[in-house]
Amino acid sequence: MKQKPDIQLQYEGFLNTPLLWKSKQLEGLVQFEIPPTTLTLFQESIPLKIRLGKLVERFVSHELNQYESIDILRENLQIIENKITIGELDCLLKLEEELIHLEVVYKFYLYDAKHSSQEIARWIGPNRKDSLVQKLKKLKEKQLPILFRKQTKLDLKKLQIDLYEITQKTYFKAQLFVPYPIKTSLLPEINNDCIKGFYIQKSQLKQFDDHTFYIPSKMNWLIDVHNNVSWIAFIDFISELTELLNNEKSPLCWLKDSKGNTKKIFVVWW
Fold first, then answer.
1. What is the pTM (predicted TM-score) of this model?
2. What share of the chain has pLDDT > 90, as a percent?
3. Contact of 31 with 168, CB cutoff 8 Å
């Protein structure tokens, strides 16, 4: 069977990623929830050096365009004051009669119980440079308030959009990873369906020396694990891994056991 191109696998991985929370609000933020759509081919032309966040925005646009009830009014609306870009609105859309300002987020977080006494603050980025709490704060204090800037109101008026009819929501998806060995207890506040695997330190990897491995590129972190890649033996994996860890990079990796069972993991440098 012919292998699908990476861009299609990335799109499918994006679609298969659950919302970080559902139904209820998280820190006052409301999720944009829509039913699953029929899988389609993603055939947009994408720049070679596009950032992962921008790629996800293109995936969201493609997904939303599959719904007859959704009308995308504007995307990436830059707000410029005194010749300085102060930010942008990811997406303005109309769902039936509801006007929505939608902010798109896709993240990878690891659960570190030692990081904080607060449950929600225990989710951190793979390199410990960001966190879920920081992102939620940025959404509430910087990104969403851009809608209410004076310049935004003027820009919306030109588009014949009434600021005061707009509801603000997030479309926040995430892949989550828990410490190894994995505990089976549910984690509160977030959607546990987002848990895709575990994270581990290099010193713990010896027990997997009979497995094979693959280290995808950052853009391919979106992709669900499949077998049609060049799996490498443990010794070769450790060699590639060590260079990344020495540069304080925690890579996402795939592992496969002798029975063909696969898993996504992060190997952390810290």
1. 0.95
2. 94
3. no
